[in-house]
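Dear colleague,

Following up on Tuesday's group meeting, I ran the structure prediction for the two-component complex that the binding team flagged. I've pasted the input sequences exactly as they went in, so you can double-check that nothing got truncated or mislabelled along the way. The structure tokens for the whole assembly follow below. Feel free to forward this to whoever is handling the docking comparison.

Inputs:
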Amino acid sequence: GQSLEQPSEVTAVEGAIVQINCTYQTSGFYGLSWYQQHDGGAPTFLSYNALDGLEETGRFSSFLSRSDSYGYLLLQELQMKDSASYFCAVRGPDQTGANNLFFGTGTRLTVIP
Amino acid sequence: DAGVTQSPTHLIKTRGQQVTLRCSPKSGHDTVSWYQQALGQGPQFIFQYYEEEERQRGNFPDRFSGHQFPNYSSELNVNALLLGDSALYLCASSLGLAGGYEQYFGPGTRLTVT
């Protein structure tokens, strides 16, 4: 089967840096995606790592270590609008053989002034 | 550039009834996936449609069925509704089966079963 673990809540100060960790267990693995979801909104794609290393997109960076089954999302220069839930999602076959995204339970980030 | 649209926005049904939810993918996308998101949880994959065929299916009962039309739009049908089916139903589109890591989500349909 597949399982992902993320912290349930994180609080950080505006302008600071925050790291959201994700560890996964999966029988098959193609890559790790990150999505942001504001309350009442739809998940929006942030980044994808298929290979080990760091991917940078503006204030957001994502890291993957396949050997450690671990990844993280790094948010720099935090802004109030970054307050949202962040989901890591594994792309790979699940127990039914479905090759799609399997989401974690999400990390609720609260940015305070 | 039209994004993913879903209808209706909200829906209230009674236990045992049937419901149909609709989705139009982002312009240029040909693959549609459906997810169920319970409150405080991550989206759970229901199934994926490509070339008008169900290509992948998650761990959901046969009460959940779908369809994709030639214009790539899709429907999700749920029969014999249970209270536990109350959730936000999200449609996501992508380009081809290989583009599944980057999916564009619609605003969702909030289904309440009473």
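The longest strand of chain A covers residues 84-93.

Cheers,
M.
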